[in-house]
Design goal:
Blueprint lengths: L1 H8 L6 E6 L2 H14 L4 E6 L5 H11 L3 E4 L6 H6 L1 H21 L4 E5 L10 H21 L8 E6 L2 E3 L5 H10 L4 E3 L5 E2 L1 E3 H14 L5 E4 L5 E2 H11 L10 E3 L19 E3 L5 E4 L6 H16 L3 H11 L30
Parallel strand pairs: 1-2, 3-4, 4-5, 5-10, 6-9, 7-12
Antiparallel strand pairs: 8-11, 10-14, 13-14
Helix pairs in contact: 3-5, 5-6, 5-10, 6-10, 6-11, 7-9, 10-11
């Protein structure tokens, strides 16, 4: 998503594009690609990490961006279920760090990339992205209400799976087919919503353009796709027959995974916009100062690698977060034992 946003932004006649990433090789590759295609545009590659505030501060004070697109995140559901403290440090604390620097340096607009998994989350990854949304939206609302001096507008965009992204099913299925199978699907009935990376990024930028600030935009993802049907179609397109040349093997739902993702844009939970594929989510609002204290406490617990209390606090702040097929199911309904901060949060 970050790379495609850069590709599309490069066509808009902008003066400078600053790329901030902790992955060296992808940064090198996207820089070569963009410099070849757009020789008149100034590209600035900055190796950094949203967890490192000194490096963020360097980038902001040196280059003074006008608009920030924040796509940095840990996104793989089973992996984050095994590493919840790292999910919090990147997805929640990292987002806070970026948002705070946007306000400090007078950035005009911050656009955050979220996920459909933040809606009624069943896993650590989705809950961490919902917490990031809470911080960003409450921050923007506090600025708009005059509680905090500043003019930055914060925009969040939610969408589902994108075709061909790192670690997604299509590259995985292609690799398995090339090796002769089996093609692994977690469950015969599992379905997902998909859109292409360029389409998702176009909608991100359209939402950012129409935003007045502090909205969470959700995208119409179209019809859901049965993953087993996708696997069969890819086998057919490779000129092979399922069951004869290539087998489909069902491996069982992974920790935190559910059969059906939430429908993002229905009339019950969203409001319309002038764009037929973009709606505004109606969500519970949180007080900014309480959100600050919760994020700080989550950071402390995560740096201590106190997994039980980190997850308990996440569940208390996001009451709709109910674990599924996870070792954290036992924490549902429990009160956090480590802090009274969450009790002060009011919806």
């Amino acid at each position: 998503i970050g790379s495609e946003l850069c590709r599309q932004l490069a066509t808009f006649g902008i003066r400078r594009l600053v790329l901030f990433d902790n992955a060296e090789t992808p940064m090198h590759n996207i820089r070569l690609e963009l410099e070849e295609k757009y020789p008149d545009l100034e590209f600035v590659p900055v190796i950094g990490d949203v967890r490192l505030t000194a490096r963020l501060d360097y980038a902001f004070r040196t280059y003074r961006p006008q608009i920030v697109f924040h796509a940095a995140a840990y996104k793989h559901v089973p992996l984050m279920e095994e590493n919840p403290c790292e999910a919090v440090l990147v997805n929640v604390v990292g987002t806070r760090n970026v948002a705070d620097h946007c306000m400090r340096y007078g950035i005009e607009k911050m656009v955050m990339i979220s996920t459909d998994k933040a809606v009624n989350p069943t896993n650590i990854m989705g809950a961490s992205k919902r917490l990031a949304e809470i911080y960003v939206q409450s921050f923007g609302q506090a600025i708009a209400a005059g509680q905090i001096a500043g003019g930055t507008k914060f925009v969040t965009t939610r969408f589902g799976n994108v075709l061909g992204s790192n670690g997604s099913v299509i590259p995985r299925f292609r690799e398995q087919i090339e090796k002769g199978g089996p093609v692994t699907v977690t469950h015969p009935d599992i379905v997902r919503f998909f859109m292409t990376i360029p389409e998702a990024c176009r909608l991100v930028m359209e939402a950012a353009t129409m935003s007045g600030g502090n909205e969470i935009f959700v995208f119409d993802m179209g019809e859901s796709i049965r993953i087993a049907d996708l696997a069969r179609r890819m086998i057919e397109l490779a000129g092979l027959k399922e069951g004869e040349d290539i087998k489909i093997e069902y491996t069982g739902l992974r920790p935190g995974e559910k059969l059906y993702e939430e429908v993002l844009s229905n009339s019950e939970n969203t409001l319309p916009t002038p764009h037929d594929k973009i709606r505004i989510a109606q969500v519970r609002e949180y007080d900014y100062h309480e959100a600050c204290r919760v994020v700080s406490r989550l950071e402390e617990l995560s740096r201590e690698v106190n997994v039980p209390d980190t997850v308990r606090l996440m569940k208390q702040i996001v009451p709709e977060y109910k674990s599924q097929n996870s070792k954290f199911c036992s924490f549902d309904g429990q009160a956090a034992e480590t802090t009274a901060i969450a009790a002060d949060i009011t919806a």
